Amino acid sequence: MAVEGPCTLVGVIGLTSVAGEIATLYDGLDAGSGRAVFALYGLANLSWGLCMEGRGIELSTGLYLALDTDAVEVTVIYDSLER
Q1: Whole-angstrom Cα distance, residue 44 to residue 34?
Q2: Does residue 6 contact residue 82 with C-beta atoms inside 8 Å?
Q3: What pLDDT band is residue 70 in, cutting at 50, 70 and 90?
Q4: Fewest CB atoms within 10 Å of the CB: 30, 63, 67, 76?
């Protein structure tokens, strides 16, 4: 999943099939040129949510989410900074 241009990450909701790392979020358009912001971990067969308080996390280049094969479903909530 990639979003081009400046944006603010507001939240992430996910479901995993096994415990461990399921995704890495990058400020950029891909894992090769983007800057890793954080990794997401989940428990086996459980849904989870992460909500950013305040103004969220501002990403200057874009938003890229690299999913592991054990990620069943991930929803990313963001706001574009371009108006």
Answers
A1: 28
A2: yes
A3: confident
A4: 30
- Rounded to whole angstroms, the Cα distance separating 46 from 30 reads 27
Q: What is the pLDDT of residue 16?
A: 81
Which segments of the chain are extended strands (E)? Answer: 2-4, 7-16, 20-27, 35-42, 47-51, 57-59, 62-67, 71-80
- pTM for the full predicted model: 0.83
Domain that holds residue 67: 2-80
Average pLDDT over residues 19-41: 89
Neighbours of 83 (CB within 10 A): 3
If you ran DSSP here, which 8-state letter would residue 41 be given?
E
Q: What angle do CA 26, 43, 53 make, to 5 degrees?
A: 50
- How many domains is the chain built from? 1
